[in-house]
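Form 12-C: Joint structure prediction
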Amino acid sequence: MDADIVCVGFGPATGGFLTTLTRALMNPDGTPAFESKVMPGMPLQIMCYERADDIGFGVSGVVTKGRAIRDSFPGVDLAKEIPNAAETGHETVAYLFDPVGASRRTASTKFMDGAFKAGGCIMHKGPHGVELPWIPPFLRKEPGLVMSMGSFMSWVGNQLMGTGLVQIWPGTPVSAPVMEGDRVVGVRLADQGVDKKGSPEAAFMPGMDIHARLTVVADGPVGAVGRKLDRHFGLPEGNHQHDWAVGMKAVVELPASCDLKPGTVIHTLGYPEPEIFGFLYVYPDRTASLGIFVPSWMDTPIRTSYRYLQHWMMHPYIWRYLEGGTLRSWGAKSLQESGVRGEPFLVGDGFARIGEGSGTTNVLTNSGVDEAWRSGVLLAEGVIELLKRDAEFTKATLTGTYVRRRRADALDSELQVAKKARDGFQKNFMMGLMGTGMTGITNGALNLSVESCPPSQRIPPLESVCSGRLTPAKLAETVEACAKAKQPLHDALMTLAGWPEIPFDGTLLMSHQDVLFKGGKVQAAGGFADHVTFARPELCATCRERTCIEICSAQALMPGEEGATPEFDREKCIHCGACIWSCSKALPEDRERANIEFTAGSGGLHSNEN
Amino acid sequence: MAKIFALLHTESDGSLPKAARETLAAAVNLAAQTGGALTVGVLGAGAAAAADAVAGCGAAAFITVGDHAVAHPRYATDAAAATALVQAAGAEIVLAPNTSRFARCLPGAAHRVGAQIDTHIVAVGGEGGAVHAQRWFYRQRILGSFSRTARPWMLLVDGGVCPAWQGPAGTANAQEVPVAFTAEDQRTTVKGVQAPAADAQTIRPDAVLLFVAGAGWTKKQKDGQAHIGDAGVLIQGFLRSAKASLGSSKSLVDIQSEGQETLSFMSHMNQVGQTGSTPRHAKGLATCCHGEEPHAVGWRFINERRAVNLDPNCGWAQGKADVVYVADAFEVITKVNALLNA
Amino acid sequence: MTNGFQIVVCGSLVPDPLQTLEPVTTPQGPGLKNETMLPSVLDPWAAHALFEAANLAKQIAGSKVWLVSLGPKAKLQQLMMTVAQKAPFELVAIDGSASGFTDAHGVAAALADAIGAIPGLDKSRLLLFGGCASASRDASVTLQLVGERLGIRDQFVGVDEIKVQADGSFSILERIEGGQYLSSTCQAAPAVLAWATGNLPEPPNNPQIGMANMRGVMPALQKAKPAAVGVGGIAYEKTEIPAQKRQTRIVKDATADEIAREIVEWIRS
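Section 2 - Result
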């Protein structure tokens, strides 16, 4: 099948791209401004393929200054138009102390605890926490928007489809770029009608090739097309993608007693582990989006985001708002936290990259959505210029239009300022905070930089993580018991470390399995192959940390037979991609890569209010 | 004073199905509540004899269509007969059982007599001229109470809502209503009823117990292997011994349609829940099920509910079952079968 | 069959079945909380009807499929993104409420009007398809009422199978009580088939079908006529989710033997 432009992934970057592009496709007299080259006589044929089962499924609540987004919709009151959106209101950053005594607090964290406790006399105190008296300007999101990305993307998608100028197809995973040498000539859709291993069954339909003059790669940091291009081209000299986090979030209907106003923004640090940051954004109608970030530099294989999320929710500082509420929806997503340092080659013959996978996340301001949107807008402006010149989409023409615009834009200069803001976290939590502060206050002139390594190489063995808390014998006994019961380790180890059991109530606090049923249930249409496999199964046999299982947001990866690879349940996967960067087994042939193969898959979350 | 009409049909053997007697009971109650006059109409094979069987219900009049054209369920002839009966009765409120036969033909009859129609009625009552009804919306997830002022109003009453009418037979002196069936009405020929294959005979609406099987039966068990063959033997053994009806969760049925190895005697017909049926049984035993509210609607009309499940926090069971046994269903059902057969 | 069938499938959107639903009262009558935001899918039974229609049209040369959908235009548009890759059809859109609390009589009238207005429709070739109920209104009467309005006197409800003979007659299996089927034959179209699940799996997403369908979908949405459907003659007194929470007794550390004994006692009680 042929198209003029094919986009991979429908997130904010593609939203910005298509919103800008479609406005240039019609002449004022209603005739098409550009003719299709693949279907002469027809208007430009533009396709967008999205992996998730509907547009806006499975993304997150955000707070954003929304400068680029607002620029795209002049005169539109977005907070009114978009469901689940509000103008940013009161912002708070709270440092949370550990009320249960189980948090991994190092000497430096304890020092910080002490400092914040001492500072409590000048700071506003909350239950087991203090609020910073002042939020640095680089972190402020006011004026801005608190919104549900799901609702926003649904809204944008409807606007776009309503123009009739572009087709957006959800439920359609794209497995790979179609390449001729270094040239991208289109994309290949995932095979359908295959078994777990990908072998054809009765209803086999091989993934179709969609040939396009321009392929817009916007499938995010764990997208199959972007990652395949990275593997083909490598990254520009000096760049790396070593820093990641998984954001696990929930949408909660707040109890009637909660008086938080729409637009309220709360960010937390310090708890449940020092490395885990939390957020709570209040939507209209007494609904909140909340969650935590578990970063790749949290040096432990025990990374179970779900249990940590529950402990965070139950922290008295947060719980006072949530108690009596109802969990409506839930999800998780990997964030590429290397920011501009993870920037790949932005263009090549026949393709351009936008959005998070193109390194747009600003790791100083903790902002990514608006930046992703902006990159899409910039590409669209470049594409419109090329269409007007009737030029082909080559590396040279795209460099001269899109890349040139991107480099000249505030987007890029702000990303450069932010480039080294997070480096300190490679060392530890306190250095990280100091580094971010230094970068922020000096506008990037001074940074706290350290060497970084791929995440696979910084996951410590279980023994060192548990030393001082568990005897080697107790650890060995627990590992064996969990292996026998085919259960992940984290629950047992966290309980042994002193974390209290979660008192499930079935409404706000529920088992990990039950949360998969919230917000429309995690599901996957039949007929697709497993999209999580292991490059070298023999490496799994030597793995004791099994961080892929521990981090798995949805218990889709579970212990398998002894000595075998973990077992993958495609129907539970929410495509967060945390397994990719949580694998501790680097491949011998490429130490930057670990043992997980993560390809294009169908299904996942079915909630659009995240 | 409302003119209440109980419209019933016979089975092909001339008997009245239980659902018809239940509807009759509801109509008798409604007539008493509203002070209305009750007429009973019967269509189908042996209609006059069937009217005699319920002659003691207190109806003021009995009318029938027993023409051989309505010996078998067929839309066109049934709709024509029902239309004639409703018109002959001068009915304002029509109560009829929500059987497959009436669910097929009465909407058309309602249209022909200018009536409004509601089906799946789970409660009906009235006072004076007003009649109120209840039915579920969004597949048993939201219960609506409502009324209509337009007449005639047809209400198709679900099975199990009212105890079946019981009373003396007698002579109903039923009046046969003539219906001019046309050749056009008979373009469809009923060939008969296909019973499910012997090994698939797992749906027993009259069973006391509903056995709900979940997808867990087909998943890997403790030893890392799936034991689908064993699961099939256990489930069918249980159904035989306990004389239970079989229901299935959606995921188990879906696995089937995706062509994975699964339980051969199970089909979409067994599915209960949001996109399946909502059967009525006195007891229900759910095994290896894991699901949320939309699935749990499958046992909304099960009075006593128990579940065997490995996860004590399972949303399917918590707060929805009376007892949850946290155990391996393979082990438990093996023992249960042994005890039942002992 | 010389000319093939003209298969008109009635089907619209319902909330994604696994979403949480909560009734609310609106000025227009009962509704659902966050109704406009709930993700929707094509009604599951109507979807089976559509897949069966596409399958039938593929087998019998000269056949064509229409999908007639009544729903809010913007939501129909979004629905088409997930439906239009599944099967070839021409959309007839009607702009109106898709709420489960709308009255089936009004909906049937709007659908019949829209079907009657399809250019070139030949009643002698018409098969009217749809679900035997919807997952929203669940009235189980709409399709029969549409059929009556169109003067179709052969109707089948709870259909799981149609087999067409060479002379254009066809045999049908309808679900009836007790897991049984009623088997019938019908001489010829027109007929109404209100489907249960049928026997076909959901077709894969086919981008070529999607691209072809979409050329007609956007114009159809732009042409969508408004239909004033609402609660009609129904006076709602209450819509509620009855509290069904039970005090669950959890038996945790019993042996399989103990549990089996208790279950058997309970079964026999």
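Section 3 - Comments
The radius of gyration of chain C is 21 Å. Chain C has six helices and 15 strands.
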